[in-house]
Fold each of these.
Amino acid sequence: MQNKILLHACCGICSAYPVIQLRDMGYEPIVYFYNPNIYPFEEYSKRLNAQTNLCKYHNCELIVENYNQDDFFTKVVGFENEPERGKRCDICFNLRLEKSAQKASDLGIKKFTTSIVISPHKNFEKLSSIGKNIAEKYNIEYIDIDFKKKDGFLKTNKIAKSLNLYRQNYCGCKYSIRN
């Protein structure tokens, strides 16, 4: 278990390159797909299908958590009108990273990270801070890797395109569609 790392994956595109980078760093990633924020279910299914195809391509384990939008909707009550990158997003990041840390701990994996940070639209420092704070609760380590560095975002998109992975056009939640 020393080299295992749980990689929370928000979608197939975003995790395409991080799996490679983590392996290059000596880790054996286990991809964890927990995204109750994704709306509607058809969109969730497309993203999960892309993630499944990517994990088959990379020959890496994929753990899929049950899809329960109530997990997300109950957490963001009162924050529905927040702008993208606002407090609602912070709540969403907390929710998904908390569940990821819990899953890693349950599996005896001592490290976790997220592919969310590969997006140029996401704040690396904010996500790292959230991840590290949550990791302390579970006595594990959040590995803060800025996957978009060294052309990571370009690399992940090239891999996704070569595999013909589904490409979404919004962050995922019901409230980000309007943007």
Amino acid sequence: MDKKIIGRKEKIALPELGLTLVWAKVDTGAYTSSIHAENIQVKEIDGKSILSFQVLMEGHESFTGKWLSFENFSAKKVKNSFGSAEYRYMIQTTIRIAGEEFISEFTLSDRSSMRNSILLGRKTLKKRFLVDVDKVNLAKPFRIKI
């Protein structure tokens, strides 16, 4: 199978989160993908742990403030962009990029000081895509019409 070439930034969809055509930074230096989340909390409801959070995306103001909840989640120790280890909650969700759709893992983190709310790491890209760091939005011709 030939791998599709994507750029350093791509528009993606995370349909289970209600996000379509949002910019994501492609970062081959990061292992895990990450999404900006705020007000992260875990609550016990009917004997089950439920992870709830808000995803705030620039350019998606209609989505801002909506709460998302996941029953299936985990916590993972990751190194942040400053090299310090921290624990982050991790979810699995469907991603659409370059006409491909698959399940990928995303850690939840505060990316408010970053230029991009979503970062795609090697684990998501591996065996699927090659990255041309000089280009952006190369996946557009493959995009699934939504």
